[in-house]
Design a protein that fits this description.
This protein is mainly β. It is built from five helices and 55 strands. Helix content is 3%, strand content 54%.
Length: 855
Amino acid sequence: MNNPRWRFRPCALAVMTVLCPAMVWAQSYFNPAFLSEDTAGVADLSRFEQGHQQAPGTYRVDIWRNDEFLGAQDVRFETAAEETPPVAGGLSPCITRAMLDRFGVNISAFPDLTKATGDTCIPLTTAIPGTEIAFNFASLRLNVNLPQVAMQNSARGYIPPDQWDEGIPALLLNYSFSGNRGNDDDNSYYLNLQSGLNYGPWRLRNNGAWRYSQSNGQSQNEWQNISTSAQRTVIPLKSELVLGDSNTGNDVFDSLGFRGLRMYSSDSMYPDSMQGYAPTVRGIARTPAKVVIRQNGYVIYQSYVQAGAFAISDLNPTSSSGDLDVTVEEKDGNPQHYTVPYSTVPLLQREGRLKYDLVAGDYRSGNDDQDTPFFTQGTMIAGLGNGYTLYGGTQLASRYTSIALGAGKNLGDWGAVSLDLTQARSQLADDSRHEGQSLRFLYAKSLNGFGTNFQLLGYRYSTKGFYTLDDVAWKTMEGYQYSDDKNDDGTSDVQSYHNLTWNKKGRFQVNISQSLGDYGSLYVSGSEQTYWGTSDSSTWYQLGYAGGWQGVSYSVSWSWNQAVGIGGTDKLASFNVSVPFSLFTRHGFRRDSAIDRAYATASASRNSDGDTSWQTGVSGTLLEDRNLTYSVSQGHTSTNGASGSASANWQATYGTFGAGYNYSRDQHDLNWQMSGGVVGHADGVTFSQPLGDTNVLIKAPGASGVNIENQTGVKTDWRGYAVMPYATVYRYNRVALDTNTMNNNTDIENNVSSVVPTNGALVRASFDTRIGVRALLTLMRGNQPVPFGAVVRETESGVTSMVGDDGQAYLSGLPLRGELLVQWGNGANAQCRASYDLPEKSLQQAITMKEIRCD
């Protein structure tokens, strides 16, 4: 409460307003008598006399510039001077030169600002007219609105490079292991290891895989070194440097594997740019099956799926483009083979943007039937005005020369298009020489008003004499490539076929989706490649429809694939439906109920040979975090009779684990898979879920078992460390601890941190934790409680609080034993000290209450 203090001339109070009109208003002050008749029992509270005052100091606040979140930062708040109006609680933030750089202020346009150095506070509202600063103490949000004329000419979302974090030194290991045990010792295992070392800006990476198979008394054991490379960012050039095994870009030419050197512009270093693209691999499994995906001859993905349509959307290819060879190994012994095209959208750049890519090295693939010729490649893309983009490049090798030139155009409401022409001279494996041209057309458009998305629509026409560098690398003019796995009769399935006399002629590829609103959506994906010298073509298409009603989801899919040189055409149709159990309960859907998170499923399929299969089952999620998924099904196939399967996958703190069992009339098999990551750093070793390219190490010492917000299954280990995988590079990443999952003896100063990692970095997000007792202490001085409003501080840990009624003070993170310093004013007579010793059981209690004597 505020009590007005009046100053008046000596006259009778009863007639004061009549005889003494010249009263003077002085100020408001806080009368301690309102709290206690004994005013000596109240601390010096003069700092509150000016209204809603706050104590000066450093606060961790969320900074927003022009309604854009920049991140959390410690900001010093000082008592507002006369020339600096307060923003809240009588305080003003201390804006430093470093903060202006973070805001993106054009310092050179304001001479007064160029003189500011170090931690000097800048009166921003005076230095830059039109600036508005506001601070909300309740939400700890600092809003800074700057006039546009004061800003640097940078795109929205721009983060200065000096805020990019190269990360900490670390050893990294990603592992993925899967296995299968079938009848008669028919076993197979696959292990993929991705190891790395981070030191400063350098990233050393190795990717290798081990495969083992055993069938009919014969076994195969193979280790493949997929790639080894060293990479770093070159920030001044906004580029990436790669040494070793990698892949060329796919903007102008098709992506190729190489061993050598690559220097290229990094799109992700620019604001509002594309963060990367990987295709969604769709397919239909007639039975529980193993899906194997190869790229450039390497197995880059292997997993197990149930019968019905599937979609693999978390693919991490070794190349930024290049076709994906998909094999669906069915339990009935009839595998499916098809190719998913993987190309880019039209090449458009913003006006004034110049993008380059330089490569020199040996051609590299995982195919023993190809040579490794040395080649160089250079490409350039320039963004021009009026929505135009020009691009071109060249490839040079001893037996191959090509040059490409093209242009792209933003057509506004009509989408975007690019057109380019490539001229090539080639010398093939039979020493024959050829010359030809290839014309490529790409188109992309999202018709949002109609719900249509042309993700990619392209066509390439090549003359009879046109070949690529990949064609020139073949050692023979034609031949088959076989799978590494052996069949029961000792033979291997045909994986692919090449014939250089049947060089590529025309290729059409499409990926279109159409939303039907409440009635679901349609999609069509596919490609068709024709060749010179044969009427056969390689074709793959998939058409599908998906919809839902009151939680019931259903889909119909149809696929057709055929490959040149590999006999037969496989056509497959599938139907799937999923019905939630909550549809049959009276209380409706509840996430807390495992029953309501369960679904009844059914699927059926039929291929072009008349083989049919159907499956019915139950699937859902379990555990408090919904990180355990399960599926149980029973079905029938026309080839193997009755069948069944059961599987479970657990997304745990230290990895992901899965297991499945399948049986049919002639076969029983058990498969399992596990994956995870291991990080070695200066503070020890931390286990995690599978790592991404860029990751965040969370350091909250002593805070064990604390969940990480928006990260399924991720929580701190027994030491208080955790890894948050898949961070976004060159962007603010919000890292937050869930305080509701902390135990009774854990408190934290601030549960939110923000980091900006560079590509491949392991950045550290540190949190100041207070591990100790939560206590409500009654502080007595003699026979009286210490004064109301006194400040209490534990001398060793720095834990601080304020005394309330009857001498009570609440402190969290308090050590079991220590000394308290209590101050209620200035001078030695306005303070006392108290030693305390709490029992061990206090660490397990929600709150400990005790009376402490202060001398």
